[in-house]
Fold this sequence. Notes:
Elements: H1 2-35, H2 51-69, H3 71-85, H4 87-91, H5 98-116, H6 119-129, H7 136-163, H8 167-191, H9 193-199, H10 203-211, E1 214-216, H11 217-238, H12 244-265, E2 271-273, H13 284-291, E3 297-301, H14 308-324, E4 328-332, E5 351-355, E6 358-362, H15 367-378, H16 403-425
Parallel strand pairs: 3-4
Antiparallel strand pairs: 1-2, 3-5, 5-6
Amino acid sequence: xxxTRFVSSVVGISGADGAAGGGxxxxxxxxxxxxxxLNGTSxxxxxxxxxxxxxxxxxxxxxxxxxxxxxxxxxxxxxAGDRQSGALKIEMQHSMSSxxxxxxxxxxxxxxxxxxxxxxxxxxxLWKSYGGNVYLPEVxxxxxxxxxxxxxxxxxxxxxxxxxEHPSTAAIVTLTVTVGSWIINFLAAVHGGLWExxxxxxxxxxxxxxxxxxxxxxxxxIAISLIAAGLSLAxxxxxxxxxxxxxxYESIGVIxxxxxxxxxxxxxxxxxxxxxxxxxxxxxxxxxxxxxxxTPLNIEAHLAPEDPRxxxxxxxxxxKLRRSMSELHVAYVSSSSIGLFExxxxxxxxxSYDLGGRKAVNRITTPEGVLETIYSLAGIPPPSESGExxxxxxxxxxxxxxxxxxxxxxxxxxxxxxxxxxLRSHS
Length: 427
């Protein structure tokens, strides 16, 4: 019965992923084609297009939705099902440790998730058949990001299933944590500061970074630490014969160790830009010039969290500077969250630079303006632009031929057939 429920769950997630991912892929290809000159639209826009943003990010987004709203219930059913049926008491009579037992369940869930997430891979093959460019490092980065997100969800659901007495309670706890991470993102957008720092490690932010081809070592290690913590808590509370006080004591130890690891990981600055367009980085010549600047750079921006100029400055310039300069300190100053009533302040909107005592103040938020200011303070000439650093894009004016048939007819029939075959082989 448990195997039947698991297979039916995998089939259901596969069908949902295929429908949602297929719809997103079809829509993305249509937009990409029109921007590339399809149907008589203005040609040339697609020359700046990257399949990473135009195709892969929306197509793989279906996996994020499935991980948030479908996968937790499957994980809870697998982990909590044995407790509800009494099979866990029989399992505990064997010599296998509780951690090994929960790890085996999680491995089965991950394999099921990978099978259910094959729809985006079909989209990659379809895009290739249309003549589209496929840059494997960025596709792999997006896939790894969603795999980490799914692992986090499974670990959270497993811990909730073992900590609570009923699967319904575990589902409520899991969704509460998920919604709580969204609230942190909302507070970060409104208040900034520590909320903004914390929001950078939520699953939503993590997936967004991977979908832009950015791999941050601190985010990866923190995600792995949280996954290990979830599995450890599940293993601790799976031991029904151990006193509650002992399990509580061990849980506090797990949480404390995880907290220390997360704090240490936040100090790591290593990252890799796997996008073909280098959208997360300055040009190679600019990066080389910035790395030669050893003096600490302090930037103070008088911009509110919801000011569009702050978003532009942070995502187009500051985030790239953090990857290029080791001694960078950025502080945002504002009296409100939107900055609407601070416009009368003479200093609002100013960006102050301090490089080893040499100072400059302006209101430029563009990457070119920021770099020009830094080079001027450092007393070095701006590097000459190289044509090799210019991303020309991969325009492709095509229609998503056959995609609807593949995702809405062939894929559901294939998944259903495989599910029936597996169930019959074990009946």
